[in-house]
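Supplementary Methods S3. Input chains for the assembly prediction are listed below.
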Amino acid sequence: MTQTLTITDNRTGKQYELPIADGTIKAMDLRQIKTGPDDFGVMTYDPAFQNTASCRSSITFIDGDKGVLLYRGYPIEQLAERSTFLETAYLILFGELPSRAELDGWTRDITMHTMLHENIKKLMDGYQYDAHPMGIFLSTVGALSTIYPDAKQVHDEDIRRLQILRLIAKVPSIAAYAYRHSIGRPYIYPDNDLSFTGNFLNMLFKMTELKYEANPVLQRALDVLFILHADHEQNCSTSAMRGIGSSNADPYSALAGAAAALYGPLHGGANEAVLRMLNTIGSVKGVPAFIEKVKKGEGRLMGFGHRVYKSYDPRARIIKQTADQVFEVTGQNPLLEIALELERIALEDEYFVSRRLYPNVDFYSGLIYQAMGFPVDMFPVLFAIPRTAGWLAQWDEMLRDADQKIARPRQIYIGPDARDYVPLSKRS
Ligand code: ACO
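Predicted structure tokens for the full assembly:
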């Protein structure tokens, strides 16, 4: 039997039956309820989309109360332990784990697309020497749309797939160029013999040696971090990707917008903000005073809290284990002690417990990145590389979804009524 929600209009006594499907009513079904003859129908008011499903998606499932995260049904813990980033990206994009032949083909195709057009170097050279790499990253991704005008044909499945390959393959190269630019070192071309993360580390850190081979523990740690960051359903940057893509803009332009959304300190910029916060606290002794300031509303405990997770973020748990493996190779990050003490106090403190604030994915990731030799301002870029897979999967899903149209929220107008223009000479 179809479930329905009955709404009674207490002015007219009229009743409306709204069908409930998948735990939701359709906002457009409310339009039949009118508050007056001129009203086009009742709307919902939902700033920040806290209770609005904007799409049907089969990519990522999150149960924020239980701390569950699944990509296409597979638990994040199993993928982090047994998969690789490229395999997980394939899963997210195409819905199933690849066969051996599919994985080999996918890996080969990605490897063949890692090079950047030489003009990108000239573009990079135009940035200030101390430009933030995330600013360089997002504008360079956008600039790729001028190099691949075929990408505008967003309704052609083969063309979409080509752009997906290009983007996943090229974002590490852009990120590495941005980093090398910021430290004044020559750009390093991709090395096709290396793994996805091995090649990325090569493009970042190669000096005069003929072949750069990163420590396998660090390559794997980066791969795990990439798996954990690959998708996270309808967050701020993914909504930006879908929103921009809904106008049929090409994926490079849409992805530049998604990366811009990720840049903010409340989203992907949080890992950078965590490190800056730990540096400001300075020592374990400074932790109680900092917690008191946060409780008084003088700043936030960065890396804590999440719109969806109201328990421990499952990714934070895996990252903590990865941190131990990395620190065995690199030596412990001195800021770890401060982070552990912050977590210990926050998890016992009534302020954080009652608001269900737990460490999120960003709380420990920055410590690992720093120990691996990344400067703090590269952290959001390291988030954007794997999230490219998720953004593209969500974009592709949106374009296949017959329910979707150009994204266009409504508003409640609270400005003045219509009035006549006042000439400048008559204004007080
Ligand atoms: N430190 C201190 N207090 C916090 C924090 C925090 N990190 N996060 C939320 N709160 C408090 C708020 O002040 C509010 O308290 P109040 O009810 O007394 O006013 C309450 O908890 C609820 O907070 P909201 O802002 O309503 O929660 P929302 O779901 O909108 O925000 C967010 C989620 C943005 C992630 C928030 O928790 C935050 O700012 N965290 C710090 C930044 C961060 O780590 N971002 C990364 C998120 S993960 C990601 O994007 C990859």
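The two ends are 65 Å apart (CA to CA). Residues 266-268, 270, 294, 300-307, 355, 357, 360-362 surround acetyl coenzyme *A (CB under 6 Å).
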